[in-house]
Write a structure and sequence with these properties.
alpha+beta, 4-stranded mixed sheet, Glutaredoxin, 3 helices, 30% helix
Length: 90
Amino acid sequence: MKRTVEIFTAGCPVCDPVVKMVEELAYDQYEISIYDLVKQCDDQTCLNKVAAYVIKKVPAVAVDGVLLSCCQNQGISREQLIKAGIGQGR
């Protein structure tokens, strides 16, 4: 049985090279699913997976149902923005 790779993308110039790199590395040993979050999925599969993996930024890659550690950053938070000085001049 083939291993699985899921790629979450926004179809942007930053995401496209990641998709190509994964495709080149995985070739025929993996079943690759690409979820374009801009286009979304008719059956909400991609949005359900984003919620299940707690994806906060793209591109993101999951292998065999596990989000890679490089993709697990919690993304932008209100606290980080305030710490950077955003919103303090109000």
